[in-house]
Design a protein that fits this description.
This protein has 526 residues and is an alpha/beta fold. It has three domains: 257 residues, inorganic pyrophosphatase (n-terminal core) (Alpha-Beta Complex); 105 residues, Diaminopimelate Epimerase, Chain A, domain 1 (Roll), CATH 3.10.310.30; 78 residues, Nucleic acid-binding proteins (OB fold (Dihydrolipoamide Acetyltransferase, E2P)). Helix content is 38%, strand content 20%. Strands 2-1-3-4-5 form a five-stranded parallel beta sheet, with helices on both faces. The longest helix has 32 residues.
Amino acid sequence: MPKQLTKQTLFEILSSRFDREKKLSEIPNPALLQDGTKAAKRIAHAIKTKQKITLVGDYDVDGVSSSAIMVEFFRLIPYPLKVVIPNRFKDGYGVSASVLERIEADLIITVDNGISAIEAAEICKNRNIDLIITDHHTPSDTLPHAMAIVNPKLPTCQYPFKEICGAEVAWLVLALVKKELKLNINMKEFLDILALAIIADIMPLIDINRTLVKEGLKILMSSNRPSSIIIRDFLNKSKISSEDIAFQIAPRLNSAGRLEDASIALDFLTAQNTHEAYLGFEKLNSLNELRKETEATCTKEAILKADPHANVIVVAGKNWHEGVVGIVASRLVEHFSKPAIILSIKDGIAKGSARSLGEVNIYELIKENEKFLLKFGGHKMAAGLSLKEDDIKEFTHAINKSASKLDADDFKVKESITGIFNIDDIDFELLDLLEQFEPYGEANQRPTFMFKDAYVTNVKLMGKDKSHSKIEIKESPHAIKSVEIIAFKTIYEIPKNKKITCSYKIAKNEFNKRTTIQFLSDKIYL
């Protein structure tokens, strides 16, 4: 049974999550990154000798943000930088043979990709192009023959904090380039973009990630960058939180690469005036609406095809939209409480995404069965893969066999309820206390509280399709004060005993210049 809380006990619980807040000045020296200085010296040499430099990014928020930071940095030098972001549908992931066909360069730098680009590295070598890989994905046993590989996850890399995203690696390398060229550039001015990447790539919000996101969100509130101005106007809040970025901004930025081309998101982030940025954001908005519709259709079909008894749900469909399979995999994880792999089949090849839960390392499960695959990559909670259509059945059987050896507890998502508050104690003072420990996210979850056997006085259905519930509750039938809990994607009816037990989170809601406390239902215990 969760314990009764006071504001003081909650303060103590949240304080114990962190030893001490790091300052920006305490971020470890980027020179500790293996090959970091070597990469920076080569980039500096290319700039000094006016060589052609091409950047190869990735189509998710981390890849686009990494590319945007590079573009903005090179603009400040100023030096021409050609940017290629592979198209998910025509090129596939990362620097590849098809991408290299349209690149003429002396130096290629990858951001947020490249650690598995064995073939691309050979092509670069044969064409006398120097290749610098900056990435954060898990390396396999064989590394590409590149001029420099900067990745904190290399077993021999001395960088003390490993859980950084691709944009952080790129930003740290640029700090070394700045030093090599003795440039007067303030690396802090990129933190608004960097924060987007750290949050969207679900990096743990501890250690330097926490510091960078905290500072980045502050800069986002005051930056003159046109894209940051548009984000501020869109959110229209006195303070932007990490959840605002995760749920409102990241899906819009991601929708470009999912449905059309990631260059739309890059153009938005690097827009040079607010008119340009506004038009770019409008485009992202409409792509995001289309993404929601496409995803909903695909999810319905995938749920019907899934085997609910499997350890790992593997579902394949002809011509499912490749851009939404990752989100559909997440939806199936939520629906079945099991890891899920969604594959889109086209011309005999199945390409897809995997998502996990609990302690199940989906990357290791896939790696164990790589003999069935053409390509794969990723990390513990998410991965991408491709295989021949004819091998789907055998791969499904093999990965389920691998998963059957895991402990049943690995599949459980540990719901940690912080405790119980009396309704009378939930006020703006509590909201201020919670704000002190932001940003919330991976490895620093927003606290979850519980209402136990609360009395339901009313239920209203909300939304276009009436698929959300607003539940009014009191602590007892005779209590004066009541609160409304919002349960998204839940149709709830007043139970016969009129009692409800549910977990919830508290958030600040700003609307029409009025601030209220919002209760968001996490789980209703029936």
